Amino acid sequence: MTGGVVNIGYVELLASALLMMVAGLVSWKLKLGQTKNIAISTIRAFLQLLAMGFLLVYLFKYQTWWLVCLVVVAMTLAATQIAVSRVKHVAKGLWLDTFLSIFVSSIVIALIVVECIIHADPWYSAKELVPISGMIIGNTLSSAAVAIERLFSSMDSRSAEMYTMVALGATPREAAFPSIKAAIGAGMTPELAKLSAAGIVQIPGMMSGQILAGADPVIAAKYQIVVLLMISAATTIAIVLICFLAYKKRFAPDGYYLSPALRD
Question: Which residues on adjacent β-strands are paired with residue 157?
């Protein structure tokens, strides 16, 4: 055991990869064409998480504010790339809007939690700031991708309506607002479902991890509440920002909605 946690050996860790054979067999049997993706994703998860573990060992020992911030920025860059890659029809300039939305929401909420709730000392303590930022960024990227996809799909389905509204004098924001509302609602739904299910349907990841590490279940529950609330706040900020930035990508400078043939 290490610090109250049962240390998983590398042989057992590799053996756990056999669990992904369930998904692989389903993909092969149903001819889903996902077998290669399942294998690649599993290997990436192994390598990326182990690399992050070794990096955190270094950060905990030799942390400086600029190095910790650099790691958070790198995580945000990777999250932005993943979020944008999930959008079917990427608009010009969407990458920067997505990065700003994820970065601003994640940093603001992470610093509030670290400074005002956990009271980390110093504020850039890698032990607190990096894991908290990682949890927030990982969840905001999923919600941002859902919101962007829903926004563009809704706008395309309402194209005739928006053409008419703009022709009658509405601004692009007024024409797009129903789609913005729908996208924000769609992005918030998964996090609200998690809040409703926590403690009844499931014991969330952080609480489970702390209990396995030997922490008091009540203390673990308190930390999990903070995590769920901070993720909910950050994802809400992120999807609001991305929706109010991204809708402009579907309009021409003169305010008219761009048909698919006229887009970049």
Answer: none
Q: What is the pLDDT tens value at each position of the chain, 264 positions in all?
A: 555 566 788 788 888 888 888 888 888 888 888 888 888 988 988 898 889 889 888 888 888 989 999 999 999 999 999 888 888 776 778 899 999 999 999 999 999 999 999 998 888 898 899 999 999 999 899 888 889 999 999 998 888 898 889 888 889 999 999 999 999 998 888 888 888 877 776 677 777 777 777 778 888 888 888 988 999 999 999 999 999 999 998 888 877 877 665 565
Q: Domain check: are 52 and 94 in the same one?
A: no
For residues 112 and 152, state if they share a domain. yes
126-157 and 159-167 helices, crossing angle to 10°? 80
Please state, in angstroms and rounded to a whole number, the distance separating the CA atoms of residues 249 and 263. 9
Joined together, the tokens standing for residue 150 give 């829903």
CA distance 52 to 74: 12
Omega prior to 253 cis, within 30 of 0: no
Residues 143, 53, single domain; the answer is no
C-alpha neighbours within 13 Å on the C-beta side of residue 28: 10
Distance CA 141, CA 150 (A): 14
Handedness of CA 135, 65, 63, 214 (dihedral sign): negative
Which amino acid is present at 248? K
Indicate if 38 and 131 belong to the same structural domain: no
Name beta bridge partners: 5: 2
